[in-house]
Amino acid sequence: MRSSERQRTIRIADFDLPRGAVSIEALMAMPRERWEHLRTEINLRRRDEPARPLARCRICGGGVFIRAQAVADGDHMPLYYHFPEAPKGCPWHEGGTMTPDAARAAQYHGHQESALHRHLCQTIEALAKADPRCAASAVDTYLRPAIHQRGRWPDVFLDMGELGRFALEVQLSKPFAPEIAARHLHYEREGVRLIWIFRELESPLPQGFHDVITMQRGNAFLFDDAAQSASIDSGTLILSCYLEDGQGGYLEPRLVRLDDLNTASGRSVFLEDRRSDRLTAYCREVRNHWWKALQHAQRERPNSPFYSERFAPAWTSICGQVPDLSKWKDDYWASHSDRAQAHLASLFAIFCSVAHSAEQGTDTLYITRHSGDGALLAMLNSKFSGADFLPYANLLQAFVENTPFADLLGRPSLQKILGNARDAQTQIDPGHVVWWAVVRMFPEALDGLVRAELIDLGELPPWACSSAGEGVEPM
Ligand SMILES: [Zn+2]
Q1: Distance 242 CA to ligand 1 centre (A)
Q2: 408 and 266 in one domain?
Q3: How many Å lie between the centroid of ligand 1 and the Cα of residue 290?
Q4: What's the DSSP call for residue 71?
Q5: Tens digit of pLDDT for each residue in 344-367?
């Protein structure tokens, strides 16, 4: 990008908690699916509560959205932009953005619905009607301009009896983010399942199509020649389903019936949730190394498990993600005459004890010999009154607040011990390398962005839900 353009972009956007501030550098470093998720959530909020933007410009406080800027090789780069009503005087203002209406007019102006579009809609309807379960259907291409005003007339509407009601949007030209969000929210409220249908997966794929695929959790549905002949053969509507392969491409397409699709999650219809699984895998990637090492180490040398060489692969794994740990290791040795790897292993054991106790509903400890009722509290009290863990009172609080044990923080014994720790020693903050290491071990509880995405997907694990009802799918 040219440097003059770069200077005009919004440097920091403040998202509603728990996401918090996301710098432009952090945004641009995200894998596509992560920023696409943010982009989609911004658009949904915009549609639902225009006066309460999900993300705001740090300087002017105006609402911002994420624009996918096309770059070489069909790739896109995320940039923040002010919504049109943001104060024009903001030093980060990029100087006028196209409103959705203007962009839409530019795409549609002077163009009638294409003959191909009508033909596809009618074919799809006819094939669906061949299924005896189809109780009602409609094709409404003539009313399409009304969609762009207020009405919601799906390209193809199907009442498939016990299967449910479906709105099929046959999308040949790129859809606009505000419309995608609007339609999903509208149909979700109406109890109608929305499926976007493409004719092909162009390469490069325009961002509007990526947005749809994000909404459909990494699934793209095509009505192509293969789908059409399979539909004719089997007497019901069949679509070609392309699932993201996790490496920027797609798996071999599968022919799917409406019966095969997951329609239970409200907002989106999909064959396989390709996004949540990968996010879950990301969350466990580093932690699994530490967990395996801890199990081996405790079996092999129960008296001093944390000095076991079993932790070496776990250490290597986390250094790959938090490179500054290597330098901290030397500093730690210089100041403590102790091994950083062992120190991090015992921190892992403390936090893992909290997580597993929450998960199993009974106090489960991997450090200290406390047992029975109240063992977890006793362990925390003992660890955080010893010299080793004094700098981590704030970290512990941030972690425990996002678990079902949040009420432990109100216990006088722990309150006193954490207070003493804060008085005795400078606390590490979220910029500290050890804080980041623990975030990477337990992102569900400590990484605001990951946490928010898991909440949106209804996939926040129970051990990382505070008592405040997070993780419950919003209405
Ligand atoms: Zn601004």
Answers
A1: 39
A2: no
A3: 43
A4: -
A5: 999 999 999 999 999 999 999 999
